[in-house]
Design brief:
alpha/beta, elongated, D-Maltodextrin-Binding Protein, domain 2, eleven-stranded mixed beta sheet, 2 domains, two-stranded antiparallel sheet, 243 residues, single chain, 13 strands
Length: 243
């Protein structure tokens, strides 16, 4: 299985790992050589080590751009949030980490819970092509989504247009709340972004290898150790094992 997985996942002799540079929890820095550092790059390097090949990082400014490149021959594995829309062109492992997604509401808002957000007349600012944005697009039934092209842009629209809620990852919303007196972060979550490893659908042996690797990485403590190494405890959670 290893030889076939290596042939599929590293046909050039190098594992080309697509990395979403926009996720500040999974990519926390840059090396002197300009390579991304964080949980996501380290997971890609661990995959390459298991395969016995070098790793080369292919950075993308947004998760949407990484997903769009799935039909091109530019990466062999892609570290990105797993969502049904993306699964049309990418075969995903189970998640290795999860990140809570919830809402920030402005001062004086009558909204008290996540369940109250999806109502007629409520407008939600959201980074449309994020994993949580794709989830909302498929699940919001009554509220209006105001889509933007980034987390910074969704915050700006939320403030400038005086919207009712700002959707986002809990760690980022905590930071945003600091600049908005009286704003509140709602308890609970509307979803958890499932950060996984994906590959091209025709790489069956490679996909099976990756799925096995991810489960082992969670069970062995590798994922937990990377979370601690990069100082993102309490913001990233090791995903549960597949049963």
């Amino acid at each position: 299985m290893l030889e076939q997985a290596r042939a599929e996942l590293a046909p050039t002799g190098v594992l080309r790992a697509g990395i979403n540079l926009a996720n500040f929890l999974l990519v926390t820095g840059e090396s002197a050589a300009g390579e991304p550092q964080g949980v996501s790059p380290d997971m890609a390097r661990a995959v390459a080590d298991r395969l016995g090949v070098p790793v080369s990082y292919v950075g993308f400014k947004t998760p949407g751009e990484l997903a769009d490149a799935a039909t091109e021959d530019v990466w062999d594995i892609g570290n990105i949030g797993a969502e049904p829309e993306r699964a049309r062109t990418i075969t995903f492992t189970a998640a290795y980490v999860e990140i809570e997604a919830t809402y920030l509401v402005p001062a004086g808002s009558p909204i008290e819970s996540v369940a109250e957000v999806d109502r007629e007349g409520v407008r939600i600012a959201v980074y449309g092509r994020s994993a949580y944005g794709l989830w909302l697009a498929s699940n919001i039934r009554h509220a209006e989504l105001v889509n933007t092209d980034g987390m910074d842009a969704s915050f700006d629209v939320f403030v400038e247009q005086e919207l009712d809620a700002l959707a986002g990852l809990r760690p980022r919303l905590i930071k945003d709340m600091e600049s908005l007196p009286g704003a509140r972060l709602l308890d609970g979550q509307f979803s958890a972004v499932q950060q996984a490893i994906g590959t091209h659908p025709d790489r069956k042996a490679g996909a099976a290898f990756l799925s096995e690797f991810v489960e082992e990485a969670k069970a062995s403590g590798l994922v937990a150790s990377l979370i601690e190494k990069h100082g993102v405890e309490g913001r990233l959670t090791v995903a549960p094992p597949v049963r």
